[in-house]
Amino acid sequence: MSAGLGRRFRLVKIRKSKYEAGRHKSAVLQTLFASGAVNMEPPLCPRESGQFIAERSQDVFVKEEGVQKVAEMLYSLRNSDELTASGWKKANPLAPAPNSDQALNWVFVVDTMNFSFWPEKETEQCEVTFKGTTYTGYMTLCAAITRAMEEGIPITDPKYFSQISVEELGHVLRSDNKTAMPMLQERHQVLTEGGRVLLENGGSFSSFISKAGNDARKMVALIVEKIPSYRDEATYEGKRISLYKRAQILVADFWGIMAAREEEDIINMDWLTMFADYRVPQALVYLGVLQYSDTLMQALMNGELLSSGDRREVEIRGCSIWSVELIKERLCKLVQERDKQACGINSAIIDFYLWPYAKQHHKEMAHIPIHHTRCIYY
User: Fold this and answer.
1) Using the 8-state DSSP alphabet, how is residue 212 labeled?
2) Which among 157, 253, 277, 351 is annotated as catalytic?
3) Which of 78, 141, 209, 342 lies 20 to 30 Å from 374, alpha-carbon distance?
4) What pLDDT sits at residue 88?
5) Three-class SS of residue 369?
6) 297: Cβ–Cβ under 8 A, 6 or more apart, which residues?
7) Which InterPro entries would you find in this protein's record (predicted)?
8) 241 forms bridges with which residues in the sheet?
9) Which parts of the chain sit beneath pLDDT 50?
10) Angle at 59 between CA 53 and CA 65, to 5 degrees
11) What is the pLDDT of residue 109?
12) What distance in Å separates the CA atoms of residue 246 and residue 256, rounded to the nearest whole number?
């Protein structure tokens, strides 16, 4: 560890960001809830949200033949490491060894800042080189955090990252080139907020998440209750819905570490859905599972920026969730009918397969645009 561990870190005043505005909006909504001016009905859970959206979607459609095709594809891989929770470390070689003390706090730091890596221009991507390999996209964050650990920066210690300055975080996340990682101010705010929550709840992610027992559903509820930046919710057709991409992937990563350690199982993992971002929907379109309307496809081809909560953005994410639920159901039916055994593959495992699949086939999928939304949720 560097001498920086014992330093007192000066908190710098930073400009008001969209994230702060969102927190202000939340405070206003809480006041309205208290007055009865707003319906206090809780949002639908992610799975119910996905179904609700898919049944009403105007621009995104789930294709039955694509669902069957991907279910068959996954069936052929059912006994491979690619479709197991223990494949977590293989899927991300930059993560610390699962048995290490830092593994759990590492996933908390990474998942708290796991959003919005797409570049303004494809030719101007943020890049981070670590041990001879140059990374882009989400992997730049993983490489930057692991690089900081090797440099002696205690980036996985909540006492440090709860007080880290914008300048210090900028150094941790520094790019090899002139293209910086997007949304530094927002990443700083969500990370320091998350660190303070951990310090108030035992001082580590392990202590914090233990309050939910070994129940994945309760873990997600705890995360979104205690940490505002994880409240990935919207209103669609007059209904409050939830997508909870980062909260669910944090629980799934925790599960992956526990599985790799061969420690106790976590119940209700089947409650989790896929993690609705901008990369997996692209793969689902490529595989014929999703279809965009001509109007939506043209808007995406033109590079239109969709705001968080835009109807089309919600439909892309919600239909992605529901389509993977249908794939899971079809896959498990195949396993039960052909193998005469229970299916242990859940939506999180399917997502763990589809995300690297999208990265590996990015050239073949280049003609399918991702949707562009700048937000802290994904």
Assistant:
1) G
2) 277
3) 209
4) 54
5) coil
6) 369
7) Q_salvage (IPR019438)
8) 44, 234
9) 1-37
10) 80
11) 99
12) 15
Determine how many CB atoms are found less than 10 A away from the CB of residue 16: 9
324: Cβ contacts below 8 Å, ≥ 6 apart: 273, 274, 284, 347, 350, 351, 354
Please tell me what DSSP assigns to residue 339: I
Residue with tokens 């197991």: 84
**Residue 342: what residue type?**
A
Helix (H) or strand (E) holding 61: strand 60-62
- pTM greater than 0.70: yes
The amino acid at residue 64 is: E
* DSSP per-residue letters across 11-40: PPP----HHHHHHHHHHHHHHHHHHTSS--
What's the confidence (pLDDT) of residue 13? Answer: 33
Q: CB of 52 within 8 A of CB of 315?
A: no
The confidence score (pLDDT) of residue 92 equals 84
Three-state secondary structure call for residue 292: strand
Residue burial 66-78, b: 16+ Cβ < 10 Å; e: rest = bbbbbbeebbeeb
H or E, element range at 60: strand 60-62
Q: Known catalytic residue: 277?
A: yes
Taking the alpha carbons of 327, 88, 111, 45 in that order, is the dihedral positive or negative? positive
